[in-house]
Amino acid sequence: MVPVFSLPAPQHGSSGLYSLAVGVGTLIALMVIAVVVWRIDSSCPGCPDEWFGYRSSCYFFSKMKKDWNSSQASCSAEGSHLLVINDANKMRLFLGMHIDYHWIGLRNSTGSGWTWEDGSKLNNTKVISNSPVQHCGVLVKGALLASSCAVDFPWICEKSPK
Predict the structure, then answer these.
(1) pLDDT digits (tens, 9 = 90+) for 32-87
(2) Of the residues 13, 55, 68, 146, which has the maximum number of CB atoms within 10 A of its CB?
(3) How many CA atoms within 13 Å lie on the side-chain side of 132?
(4) Where are the domains of the chain?
(5) Alpha-carbon torsion, ordered 12, 17, 18, 20, to 10 deg
(6) Least confidently predicted of 33-37, 95-99, 132-136, 152-156
(7) CATH 3.30.70.100 fits 52-159, yes or no
């Protein structure tokens, strides 16, 4: 007879703990699978080291902090530009990241509304602002915020893969 291994049946009064343990174990397994899949998807042929690929673009999340103009110049020096979110799927992706403050390619310098670096207008998304001197866009914890362009934050660059 071949021995069969199975989990012991929960004892009286311990079924809640048993269910919790199984649930936590399942959650951990799913998280490991998600991280492995994300790491595979995040590598994109043609994206430089330390850049992540999504669809047809490469993205870089800086660790340094600079003002908006210096952040824009840093992206430009890498052959890229500050992040432009020009479709609903991309907006959901980046707003869903819930990251701390990062500069993106969004400005309201002319008073004619929020405009992306590529010249397109921001559509259907509110930029939270509490001051008329806040003219640069920041992505933070699921929202777009206005900030003074002189504040130092990390930034997100975007470019096409090679």
Answers:
(1) 333 333 443 445 568 999 999 988 899 999 999 999 999 999 999 999 999 999 88
(2) 68
(3) 2
(4) 52-159
(5) 150
(6) 33-37
(7) no
